[in-house]
């Protein structure tokens, strides 16, 4: 039920430029807007926020649904907040099943969806929630084609005008409206109002414009990945749910290192470019390389580390198929996005294996410091931008808080988090610097 005492106007007045200017633009923040853009009544889902902090922190989660609103104090570095599954049963079109998260100290927020119990064909997904300080007004979407696709948009201010340009081959229904090929979706959203699209039409490279900052989540209710074997030359693995927060277009970059993923059996990368006819070059350490040209590219790769460079800014998304046949989706941080001081906590009692992969300049490896017991699984070296980078895969040995630091204040590095169990997987970038 909606909370009759909820006052959207009062909350909006607490968000002002003076408050936002006191901290930087990376994955940590004090104000967050998000939603879970999935419409599913078939299963009982566990919906959760994983919120981590470096210090004693007060956190408020606010929604128009009374059972979601709550206040908590982070004292041990992490809080797991279970959310009623009503948030994944929303209709397409306008929705107030959205969240405003505020804190008095810097926090990192991760959203997680997983089935309560299943023996096969399990589904799960995770995404990092970007803070208000890095949100902007222009986005493009990445999804897997030929599956049920979703997009969620959240307004952070009143009277937010939004235009969605979808390259449709056939008409689709969104809420009570029918959208024809060549027709844009135009709307005005109120503060903390969301908009949910679910369709079989390909949403990849769909452009979204707004006159005020918005948050955008994109992905697939069902995602599948084909693996060719001698016994099953056309075998297609079961479906999994995959979602990610989209990065504003003006924060895309050109240089990436695709991280190795523990126990992955194959990769698919999907790339969209800010400009047409972008050249993409992919290299590994054996001098193998390919070059592709276009503004939408999909490439199948063997599961190892690669250096990807582009002639124009791009958004690069990786789908990893694990040995248990779960699929994870993650936006790959560019080298220009590398940050520092990550605080990570794996999902609680859901996945048998939880891992991180760190990407760092080889000359900086010895300066890494960790809080929490992480066991090194493998380490590889790859050349990128005429520099040597090392990728280190580590497994988490428990369900505690893991902190990653460096002795040098100037050292920057990327971290991705992922895990899996039979038939299910999750993955997300641990952070960005913009």
Task: Characterise this structure.
This protein is an all-beta fold and 434 residues long. The chain has two domains: 216 residues, no CATH class; 178 residues. Helix content is 2%, strand content 53%. The chain is built from two helices and 32 strands. β28 and β29 form a beta hairpin. The protein is globular, with a radius of gyration of 20 Å. The chain starts with 7 loop residues before the first helix and ends in a 5-residue tail after the last strand. The N terminus is likely disordered.
Brief synopsis:
The chain is mainly beta.
List the topology elements.
Layout: H1 8-13, H2 17-20, E1 29-34, E2 45-53, E3 57-62, E4 70-74, E5 78-83, E6 93-95, E7 99-115, E8 124-129, E9 136-140, E10 149-155, E11 160-165, E12 172-174, E13 177-179, E14 185-189, E15 194-199, E16 207-223, E17 240-245, E18 253-258, E19 264-273, E20 278-283, E21 289-294, E22 296-301, E23 306-322, E24 327-331, E25 342-344, E26 353-361, E27 368-371, E28 374-384, E29 387-396, E30 402-406, E31 413-421, E32 424-429
Antiparallel strand pairs: 1-7, 2-5, 2-7, 3-4, 3-7, 6-15, 7-8, 9-16, 10-15, 10-16, 11-14, 11-16, 12-13, 16-17, 18-23, 19-22, 19-23, 20-21, 20-23, 23-24, 25-30, 26-29, 26-31, 27-30, 28-29, 31-32
